[in-house]
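ok here's Peptidase A2 domain-containing protein, seq below lol
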Amino acid sequence: MASLQLVAWRAAPATRLPLRAAARRAVWQPSPARGARGSDLRPLARVAAKADEGDAPLVEGASEGVALDSADAEEVLECVRSALGLPSGTTLAGSAALSAATPFCCVEGDGTYMGLHSRWRLQVRHDGAFHSETVTVGQGLHYQQGYDGASSGGAREAAARVAGVAAAEAPPFYAHVAADAAGGGLEAGGETEGGEAGVTSIGADFGADPDATPGAAWTVENGLASLIELDDREDALLSMWMRTGAWLLPHVRPRLRVSVEPVDRASASSDDDGPRMPEGVRAVVSAQLRGGKVVAKLLLGAAHLPLQLRMQMWGAHEVYEFSDWRAPSDGGCRFPARVAHHPASGGTDTYVATRAGASAVSNKLFAMPDVRACAGDTEYVDGAPRVVRGRRTPGGHVLVRALLDGRDCGEWLLDTGCSGLVVSKATADKLRMETFGKLSITSVGGSHQSQMRRCSTLQIGPVVQRAPLFLEIHDAIDVVDGAHGANAPAGIIGWDFFRRAAVELPAAGDAGAVDLQILPPNDPYLDTLPQRHAARLRLVGRVPHIEASVEAHGVSARTLFMLDSGARGTDLIFHSSSDAGGAMLRALGDRTSRMVVRGLTKAARVQARSGVLDRVELGGVSADEAMAVFLQNNDKAVETSVFSGGMICSGLLGRFRVLLNYAQGVAWFLPDGDAAEGDGEGDGEGAAPVAA
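and the structure came out like this:
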């Protein structure tokens, strides 16, 4: 029986009333304006001062609501509007005073996040635009998230800012952002015509309506602004709109598909191991973005006020509980003064509102900030070697040495499937790294309680990151072949470093020393790489994804794959829910064999089947005879995007030199020995199109 080593690190999603971070780890970087360890809360203090001048304080007295006498969906929605203190749907739609830019609500307060005292603020406009900000007291962790609510051009302009060019000059791999930033499906759909003769093609499903949910959603961490897409975007919009009541507004409602389900304990959960239905639920409202895939379920109580919000993300349930509903004394929509978030991996974060109102704010607050390819907390050392000596293990893992606070701390695993930085407890204790917070991390085998560790600097090659934050893993990182116990890696290098550098992973070869390039993300060398080998890189949950085509025995499919250099022992992994994987498995027929996927711990086991695909195409290159693993059951811990069919693993990545530039959203898949273009090769006639 075969055994597959698989690393799929993800931390519990960050929570912000009730927005989750566009990441699978609960880490917020320090704000440059506050310093690495400052506790300056002036942005929130300014809001409080403004509230003293005009905003109304909280008052008791939420309405008991209207009795629910009909199962008709519109009647239910009218009951919810009444319970929240909103005018009827007809009155709202006909109100000339409620322009798209009119402030809808502004709420702020205190809470606990990762076990730390925090202060938060959110503001929403009538067109659904929002801005959310959270600062942890004493640690200076600062996070912002927003949505501009703009026309469809906003997404393309935002993507162009990511690329660092004018909108009209955006490179090809940003050309389709405006069309699919709304969350277009990428998993395999029905059969389509075209393709090679004799090949049945299962085409990618780009089913989203680009005009239904226009505009750009974004995050800012430590000065790093990022456009968020797919699951992250749908999660951000749905959770904020459902949390605040904005989903009922006339400018927002057309962007959603809303239905009312009968009260059934199974209806509020997508599977048997979902959270239990609370007592007193009268109806369940389900909402999706038009053309989207993420489903939000709002559980309504007897007074028709929301009791819970449930969303299934990355194969896990996230639950938000609402209580202590109040209304500003100057009128406006009621809101829950207390919100508790229960991540699927465990723990609870709380948010308690202290002030509310409808403050007028500048529309610039909702616009996506300009993106800088080079992070403000990162130094690129002139003259430092850009070629770094690493080590390849027999199983294909790539290890590099890193300096923490100037000290050589041993080897670290380069893992694109890791959504943060991970450090072993032994290494962190040896360096006496700062310790704070509480959180959970998720990997194959389940969830594990952890905490944050922080040092002064992390350096690999010419890239020096200041005040990096690490997730601590208590046990030795026992996932690298030939490196166990005292020889285990000191940690794992994931999103934080990849976002601040352009990193080239070497093509596979014999185990031993390897050279890899580490460059600033705006290095001129990147402009010389052949565009025919470039693919658009999507960051979902802080891990990279690209589109690829697979083919087996006359059947082909195209889907989105996560790039996971830490998963070894195979070329691809398909989730059990993947349409593309199902098509390949059926095409292979009895030409598969049983196997087991092993994860973080020896006890972690996932049943699977394996087979050999005829061909995989990605980034303008192709690979023949690719080994594929098809997960059969119990694979939630390794689920990725709902738009994804699975993972591309170290086996397939090792067939090329792979250069990843997270900052500008592009990956190059270079056949070994294929150098920079120099003379513009690849831009002329016959060049393969860039994947979009």
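fwiw The longest helix spans residues 230-244. kinda neat tbh
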